[in-house]
Each structure stands twice: as C-alpha cells, then as structure tokens.
Amino acid sequence: MLNEKIAKLLNAQVNAELYSAYLYLDFSNYFEDEGLDGFAHWYEIQAQEERDHAFMIRRYLIDSGHRVTFEAIAKPDKVFKTHMDPLKAGLEHEKYVTSLITTIYAAAFEAKDFKTMQFLDWFVKEQGEEEKNADDLIKKMQLFGSEPKGLYMLNQELAARVYTAPAAEE
Ligand code: FEO
Prior knowledge:
Elements: H1 4-34, H2 37-63, H3 84-110, H4 114-144, H5 148-159, H6 166-169
Bound molecules: MU-OXO-diiron.
C-alpha cells in the first residue's frame, strides 16, 4: 500500500491525464474544422498517449492495493483565434502537468517511497519530451506557418506521426 497522500495525488493524476486526453482531442476537433488534418491527427495521437498515461497510473494504484475513484472530467473551454493558439496552450498545459508530476515525486521522496519514485521516473522523462515536442511545434509554426505552402508542408509532416504504446517506447 502507498501512503494516503501519495495515493490521493496519484488518483488525482489519473483525472488530470484523462483531462489532457480530452483537451488534446478538443485541439484535434479545432484543426479538423480548420481543414488541417495533419495537425488534427498529431493531437489525436497526443490524446491517445495521455489516455495511456491515465491507464498506467490507474494500474499502478490498483497493483499497489488501492481503490481508484473517478471525478468528473472538466470541459475543455479554450477558444482559438489563430492556428498558433492551441500550440501555445499545449506547451502551457504540459508545463502544468510537469508541475503536478513534480509534486507527486516530491511527496514520494519525502515519504521515502522509492517504488513510486521509480514508477514516476518514466513520467519525469516523458514530461521532458512532451515539453520539447510542444516547443518544437511552436518554433516550426513560427518559421513556416505564416505562408500557405509552409503550412501545407507542416501539416503533411504532422500527418506522419505514428502512435506508439508506452511499453514499446522504453
Ligand atoms: Fe501525460 Fe502530456 O502529460
């Protein structure tokens, strides 16, 4: 069993990851509507990864002897004025998720819960990658997104993103 505080934080993180999936699917809805199917596809895969994160934490809680409980998932309520808006919102969101993971890690460290720290190591690394991906996308959009041909090429590039299950990423 995990200590109560850590179990609670992890349980809340399941909700946060499911919200992330919901948020990125909402970004995908926006890009579908804008006719940018490559961007829509990229965020759809992002949503699948977030769902995986939720499943991994849920499984960890169950395997550690805890009952997982669910709360409502908040409605994504962002309104986008430009194609850049979701990209920037994505980076901000990932920074926020990193702060949540850091909080859980710090609680595990304080409790000398080395098992949870080891479990969270994957997420710490993943957050570094997620922030970098979001930042790279913003930079590419700044460079190429303001003219139609550049936007078309970037859309093609993003359409090629392939979903990889987390276990296979190691
Ligand atoms: Fe599961 Fe993008 O953090």
